[in-house]
Each structure stands twice: as C-alpha cells, then as structure tokens.
Write a structure and sequence with these properties.
Order of helices and strands: HEHHHEHEHEHEHEHEEHHEEHEEEH
Number of strands: 13
CATH class of the largest domain: Alpha Beta
CATH superfamily of the largest domain: Type I PLP-dependent aspartate aminotransferase-like (Major domain)
Mean pLDDT: 97
CATH architecture of the largest domain: 3-Layer(aba) Sandwich
Low-confidence stretches: none
Shape: globular
Structural class: alpha/beta
Bound molecules: pyridoxal-5'-phosphate
Length: about 400
Amino acid sequence: MTGRATQHAERLDAVDPLASYRDRFVGADQPLVYFDGNSLGRPLAVTGPRLAAFVEQEWGGRLIRGWDERWFELPQVLGDDLGRVVLGAAPGQTVVGDSTTVLLYKLMRAAVAARPGRTEIVIDRDNFPTDRYVAAGVAQECGLTLRWIEVDPAAGVTASLLEAVVGPATALVVLSHVAYRSAWLADLPELTRIAQDAGALVLWDLCHSVASVPIALDEAGADLAVGCTYKYLNGGPGSPAFAYVAQRHLEELTQPIQGWMGAADPFLMGPSYAPAAGVRRFLSGTPPIVGMLAIQDMLGLVEEAGMDAVRAKSVALTSYAVEVADALPGPLGVVLASPRDPDRRGGHVTLNHPRMREVTAALWERDVIPDYRDPHGLRIGLSPLSTSFAEVRAGLEAVREVLEA
Ligand SMILES: *Cc1c(COP(=O)(O)O)cnc(C)c1O
C-alpha cells in the first residue's frame, strides 16, 4: 500500500504541468512539508533581491520623489492587476491598502449606510472570527441586529440557508467565498443573486479563495469584496489587503475613515474632506508600498500559470489529500471535515480527530507544518504553485505515524 501510493505521488508530480513552479519558492529544496500556504504563503526567490533593490534604488535613490513617480498610484495599479489576474474585475474597482479587518469595517459601514431603514446584517456562525467581530461592532455602532446563519462546520452557507434569513430588513450579507475551517466553496453568483433579490448588499471575503479559486466578480454582479494577500498571494506577513467596490456603487458609498490619502486632492491640504473620485476614496492613510512588492511577484507568476491551471492543480492536490487521508490515517479514526465534492471545495482540507491538537504539535517537531483549528481539526493548506504531491503524501504518512505512536 505505502509503496504503491508513494509511486502514485511521484507519478502525479511527474505529469503535473505546474510542477516546475515549485522551484521558484524559497525553501522548496528542503524536506520540510509545508501545509500552511493558506495562512502564510512561502516567499518567492525573486522577492528578496527585489526588496533589496527597492531599498537601494527606489527608496534610497528616488527618496520622496518616489511618491510622484510610482508609489502614489500603486494601490490602484496593483488593484487593477489583481482585478485582471485573479478577481475578474475590470479596472477602477479595486484598491490595495490596510488589513482585511480594517477594510471589512470600512465596507460594512459604507454598505449599511447605503441601505437606510434596514436593520439587519446577515452573517454565518462559522465565518472567520474577524468578520464576525467587525460585524458585531458595526451592528452595535449603527443600532443594527446580527442575523446568524447556522451552518454545518464541515460544510458552509447554501442557497436555502441564505434564502431562509434574508428579507426586507436585510441591509448587508457578509459571506466568505471559501470557509476558513471546512474549505466549503460558496456559490458566489447564486448567493449574490439571492441577497440582491432581497434588496441587500453583499460583501464577499475572498481571503481563502483569491489566487486559488477563479473568481468572476463583475460577471456575478458582485457588490463588494475584500481579501488578504499573504495567503495564496504570498505577499508576506502583514502585506496589505484589497477592496473591490463595483463601479455602480463607487459614487454612492462613503467610507468612515476619511483620511487624506483617499481625499480628492491630498496635496491641497484643504480645510475639509472631499472623497477622491472612484475607488481611491476607500483609502485612508499612507499606503504600505513595501508590502505590495512581493504581491506583484506572485501575481506575475499566477498570471503566467493561468488561474484555470492553478485551480486544476488545486483540485488535484486536495483530491489526492482526501484519497490518501482516507487510506492512511482514516482507519485510525480520522474523519474528513471538508466537502468531498471538489466543486464545493477550496484549496485546503480539514481532518478531524480527538487528538489533533497534540498531533499538530508533534508534526511541527518533525518539520511537517499544518495548522490546528478547533474543534480538533488538522488543516492542510495546499498552495497550488508551491506544493507537490510528494509533500502531501509525506505529510499524511507523518500524521498516521504520529497517531500510531
Ligand atoms: C485570514 C483571514 C482574515 C485575516 O484578516 P487580517 O485583517 O488580515 O488579519 C480575514 N478573513 C478571513 C476569511 C481570513 O481567512
């Protein structure tokens, strides 16, 4: 069994059209098994020298002239690049800056203000903590009520669950495209339509799908979206997030953190705030330029590989992980807590067992790096361009060995 499945991993790597991309990441030559690219992607080898060159030449050489030459526009330039390569968004609707948490706040506040008289924000009980906490804060601040969708933690929000809670009171629906725990892949176009038919706006959190699952925001008629760039976009710890606001909402929405960098003419330094035209109005303070550089490197790689090929590899990796998990640790009581249907699954797989907390600690000791999510879930993140099938195999063999010990 073991020998045959190992050969299978080698064969899958040998026929993988994207296999060579893995060599472009720092650490790919080490035996370490990395199952956390959905939490913090590996750096690309080109990123180190690029950052050094930026310090020497652009920051060190151009100094403050850099703002006029390139930096001022970079949040929108990179936003448009994200729109083209990974979001399915036409130019002028995406901007980069802040963290996902801060952008969630800004867009939730803007959205509920645009639906006066409506009293509810709909969100699911298993959404990522920051999404739930920010929604609770906005509800409290604006005198609104949270309306919870109760979901199966091994699955996620379905059309019928959403239909049951939206109505004339719904101002805003907040959903994750891929659930951070189960990897449930929500039907973005369908759920968007259901919320909009009820007269609500929808805010999609794309943190766990962007650059792993193809996204077509414009085609789906999406209203609002946010996402982070340090997961499958390999921007590095704390790299800035992005916000998408559909063209038709740009002039109608106003965000609550009225800073000078999102103002109509920042260098006029005038007596009062007037928002910039277009998506730039969703910026607040000075954008984090250094944090955008690594994202550009990864986005270039994703564009070269193509999002459809990236998704095909992602599906192959998670399908293989499910198959090997069933065969190896499965008989020891390990249970899949992610969808079996690849069409309903994002880029990771969660495996439950009562001992997974200690198993995770033992795996880290052995240089196998997944992460742990309550209750007793081992989360295996498979970043399509930097993970091999052999890595999946070796990591799941280690899970079995640790459980047997
Ligand atoms: C990772 C993640 C976040 C992170 O928010 P930060 O502000 O970057 O800490 C938010 N939402 C989801 C769904 C995530 O997966």
